[in-house]
Amino acid sequence: MTADSLPDGGSFTPVEGVNDPEAISGHGSLHLIYHANNDDGSPAGEAVLKVKSPSSGAFTLTDSNGGIVRAYLRADDSGNPIQNADGTYDLIVDPEAVGQTELHLTQEANGAYLPSHFVYDITVDPAPDIPPAPKLDKQVVNLTHPDGPTQPGDLLAYQVMASNEREGSVWEDALVTDQLPACLTLAADKPVHLTNNNTLAPFSGELTQVAAAADAPASGQYSVATAANGQQTLKFFMGDIIASTEQTPQSATVAFICRVNDDAPGQVLDNIATSPEAPASPESPNTPIAGPATPSGKPGEKVSPADPKKDDLALAKSFKNLTHPDATGVQVGDKVAYSCTFTNNGAANSSLLFAAVSDPLPSGLTFIPGTLQLTDAAGATHQVPDSAYHADSHTIALSLGSLPGGTSATLTFQCQVNPEALEQPLANQAYGTGTLPSDLPAEKPDPSNPDDPSDPDDPTNPTDPDDPSSPSDPTKPQVPEEPGLPVDPALFDEPLASSAPVEPDSVIPADATSKDMAITKEAANLSHTDATYEGDIIRYTLTAKALTPGAGWMEVVLRDQLPQGLDYVAGSAHLRDQGGTLYAPTDAIFDPATRTLAVYGGHLWGGHDLELTFEARVNHEGVGADIGNVAYLGGHKPSQWKENQPSDGDDPDKPNNPNSRGPKPGDPASGSELWDEFASSNLVIQSSVAYPVGADVTQGGAVLPAPDGKTVAPAGKVAIPKTGDESLLPGIIGLAVAALLGSGVVLQRRRS
C-alpha cells in the first residue's frame, strides 16, 4: 500500500509490508490535518491510498473510532470496488473530526490467493486556522445530605466539564478558574482528579497541587490561592480539548470536593467556574462561564444551620404568685404568672427551625385572656393572640420562630387558680418541638421551567407543596415560621424538650365566711325508740359542710359542750374527714372539767363535708331536765392561716403545705384560746339544738326515769362523769370486779 495523494499537511509513513508487492498484510501510519469542506460541500482534505492486490476477493473495511474519518474503497455504481489497471484499489480517507482512529482493510481469500489484512493508524490534527469554541459546565452533589439541605461540615462533590464545540479546532492548554464562595473550603484530604478523553493526548489521574504563583499550573497540576478573607481561588490545568463527535465525546472533567465551613449558615452557595484565558472568537466572544451551581440546582441557595443536639435543647418553666408575691403556695382566686423559656444551648451555627412551645394547663388553672406575650430569639416582643389558647384541650400552643444556637425564646402568660386546684394536682410542664434543618426536604427546581412563578417548589408560591408556611403542605412541619402564632397541640406528641413539672408548695381555698359553712347535729337513741330514759345511750352525729366551691376554712374544729344530764362514753368518737379518711380520736378530745368535746377535723372546702360521731349516756341529772344542745364549727381563714410546727417526718422545706403541718384530723382541740380566736374573727357557726327521741322540751318532751327503776349500762359502754361526780364510780368499779371474779353481772345495750 502506498499514498497516491495527500492533502496539505498530510503524510503517510509505511511501517511494514508496504513495499513488498507480494505481501498479504501491511501497516502504515497516516497523519492528516482537519480541513473544512469546500463551499460546495465537497471534501477538501481527502487522502488517497493505493492498495495493490491481484485477488478479486471481497473487501471489508472497519473503523476503530467512528466519526474521525470517512473511509471507503472507490467503487462502481453497483458498489463493487474498482480495480485499477495496475492492479491497485483506491482507499479514500476523508478527515471529519480531530482525533485518532485505526482502519482495518481485510480481503477474503479467493482461488489461489490467501486472505490479506492491512492496518492504517490515522491521526487527524486540528486545523490551526479554526478557533475553538470553549464551553464550561458545572455540577455539584451533596455527599453528606444528598436529599436534604446543605449544612456546616457537609462534603460537596464538584465536577467542572470543559468542552470544545467547534469541529476541527483545539482548545489548547485549557485553564479553568473556580473562585469558591466564602462558605466553602477545598477539602485538602480529598484528591483532585482530572479526566481528559482527548484521543490525541488523553489524561486520567490525580492532579498535584502547586503553589499559587504568577505562572499558571502546568499539565497534571492545580493551584490554590487563599485571599486575606479566607476565600479560595482554584485553578486547574485541563490540557488540550478537541471537539466531540457523535460516536466519541471529547471533554475534560476535573472533580474535587469542598467542605462547608462552620460559619456558613445563611451564606449563598452559588459557585461559578470560568476560563478567562480561553481564546475568543467571533462566534464565542465571551469568557466561558459555568454556574452558578448549587446542590439543590436553585441559584441563591443558602447554607442551612447545623442540627442542634437533642441534649442542647432545654425548656425551663417557673411561676410567680401575683396576688401574694411572697407566698410559695397559692390560694383559690390568686392570679399566677407562668414563664416558659425554650433554649438552644448548641453551637452558634446550629438552629432549631419552626420552634414551638406547648403548655397543657391543669384543670385547676383558668387562662386569663390577653396575657400571652412572647419574646423571641432576636429579643423582639410579640403580643400573642388568645387563639393560641386552645380551649378544647385547655392547652397553650404557639410558634416561636427559629432558635439559633445560644438563644432563647420566652413565653409568659397568666392564669387564675380555680376550685379544681383543690381536687386535682396543680403540677404541669411545658413541651418544646421544632424541625431540625436536616429534616427539611431539599429544594429542587422545575427542570422544564425553573423561573416559572407557578413552580410547585417555589417557596414564594402559596400553593407550594414543600413550603413550610403553606397549611396544605403534607410534608411541612405545620408550624408557622413567624413567631407568636397558634399551632396545633397535637404536634407535641413527641416533643424535643420538656420542662420539669412546676407546682406551688400548696393550694389552699379562698376565704369562706360563716355563710359559706354549715353544721348540723343529730341525736339517735341507741337504747329505746319510743322515749329517752335515764341510762340510755345517745349517738350524736355532727356534720360540717362547706357550701361554696373553692372556699373553706383550715384546721376546722368541731366543738360540743355536753349538758349536765349527759356523760361522754369513752372510746365512742369516730371522725371522717373531707377526703373520706376515718380516724378514731382518743378520749383526750373530751374535757370532763368543762364537759366539752373539741376535735380537729382537718381542712374543709367547698363541695365537701366531714362527720364526727360520739356517744353519751343519759345520767340521773338528765331526768326531767333539758338535755338538748348544739354543736359548733370553727376554723382558720385560709389567707390568715399560720401552721404550727411540723410534726415528725414532715417536710420543713414546704412551710405552706396544708397536708404536712399542724394538727391532724382527730387531734384534741382543747383550750379556750383557740376558740376565742375563732369567735373574734367571726369564724364560728353553730347547729340547731339536737334532742333524742321524746326529749325535746320545746315540744313537751322530757327524759324519763329508767323503766324498771334501775340504770342499766349497755355492754362495753363506760361513761366519763363530770369531775367530782362519784355517782357512776361504783358502777365502773363493779364492772371491773365482775370481770375479775367472773360474776354474772351483764351490761347490755338495748338498741333500736
Automatic annotation (TrEMBL):
The chain crosses the membrane at residues 728-747. Residues 273-288 have a biased composition (Low complexity). The keyword Mitochondrion does not apply. Residues 1-21, 268-309, 430-509, 634-673 are annotated as: Disordered. Keywords: Membrane, Transmembrane, Transmembrane helix. The keyword Amino-acid biosynthesis does not apply. Pfam families: DUF11 (PF01345). Residues 325-433 form the DUF11 domain. This is DUF11 domain-containing protein. It comes from Muricaecibacterium torontonense.
